Amino acid sequence: MARSRPRVWLVAACAAVLLWASVAQLVAVGRLLLQFGPAGDADPSPPPSVLPPPRIYKSNGYLKISCNGGLNQMRSEICDMVAVARLLNLTMVVPELDKRSFWADQSNFGDIFDVRHFIDSLRDEVHIIKQLPERLGPSDSDIIEMPPVSWPDEKYYLHQILPLFSKYSAIHFNKTDARLANNGISTELQLLRCRVNFHALKFTPQIEGLGNKLVHKLRAKGSFVALHLRYEMDMLAFSGCNHGLSLEEAEELKKMRYAYPWWRDKEIDSQAKRSQGLCPLTPEETSLVLKALGFQKDSLIYIAAGEIYGGDRRLEPLRSAFPKLVRKEMLLDSEVLRQFQNHSSQMAALDFIVSTASDVFIPTFDGNMAKLVEGHRRFLGFRRSVVLDRRKLVELLDLYTNKTISWDNFASSVQEAHKSRVAQPSCRRKLENRPKEEDYFYANPHECLVNSSLCS
């Protein structure tokens, strides 16, 4: 009996640890649900208007960040960097947005997001200021400029970055894309990433108002599909996908790819990429897929995208199949939209609002907007999002266009392939040392959803 006591004690201790971990996670998730309402609600409760009390902590220094990429990539970067600032007990400066990328958008953070709401809503986690103190100028030796490594965990920031503040007062991260891992991050920080994404990053009243106006106009016509038709010039040039293009168009895109040095891949095998499902569907391919999935000719479809490469000529097959095809330019007065023109991120914000509110969301490529919208729709009660299996679709499309299979065979095969491709409660797929290939945190932030206990 005496010998069995240590074993009993060990079992009891392990059980206590597991129980403590479970309770800690439930408490953390509960805090998020109290703030935003459960993900199963179609219309989550608005956050309380009373500001949270400020968190009192000794700041280790200042964190300045310069985001890179389009709107939705920058959105995820901001969420990551708030989590990093909280982890390291830093004072964060309102983020700088990318003004040097292909889109040449000169929007500032305050042109897209509500700055005061961003600062106030996170005051119980991180102290955020609008700019660095004047004593820390651009050329100050007290500031170090650097990019963090890609996909790091908390240990990297604690062991590699935090010690730098013993020498410098501020760190300027000049690149912030994919600078925090999808998995292996504490539940507390994962929940903070969600809090920033779903609450703190609120669009300006101007953008919010116009986006809601678009939704109301569409709702007045009935249910609608938001189609993220990622067939813009930059996407095709960057990916090297030229299926269905003329030789002249393919050459134009190739020249563009060589003109931008930060697009590393120059010579790309378009056919190989397409067969691997790594190319966006063309408008013609999209029309066939939508018909095969059962969408009727009178379906109202909103194109959530920038300017389609090839314009109306390229859109003709899709418009012919679905005459009720609309864009924001068709629903809003040109004078109203004029203030947003030449500001691609502000235009993308309007598409984001419509896409999260649509009855069905379908992206033709799994880029940053597709993933961020999918994650938002999961949080808003798992609204229907169809994640296309492009690799399978390319195979079926080629068989159909080559007349190897009939329309009925094609349609039934497409439907069969997408039975389980509708976003639903699930755990992220983790791949050891392959972060680019595993499920993206922001597409399925399961720690912040009602199914979180299933994924612990």
TrEMBL record:
Keyword Zinc tagged: no
Membrane topology qualifier: Single-pass type II membrane protein
Signal peptide extent: 1-24
Keyword set includes Glycoprotein: yes
Superkingdom classification of source: Eukaryota
Biological pathway: Glycan metabolism
Listed CDD domains: O-FucT_plant
Molecular function via GO: glycosyltransferase activity
InterPro entries: FucosylTrfase_pln, GDP-Fuc_O-FucTrfase
Compartment list: Membrane
BP terms from Gene Ontology: fucose metabolic process
A GO cellular-component term linked to this record: membrane
Pfam families in UniProt: O-FucT (PF10250)
UniProt keyword terms in alphabetical order: Carbohydrate metabolism, Fucose metabolism, Glycoprotein, Glycosyltransferase, Membrane, Signal, Signal-anchor, Transferase, Transmembrane, Transmembrane helix
Family: Belongs to the glycosyltransferase GT106 family.
Protein name: O-fucosyltransferase family protein
Annotated source species: Urochloa decumbens
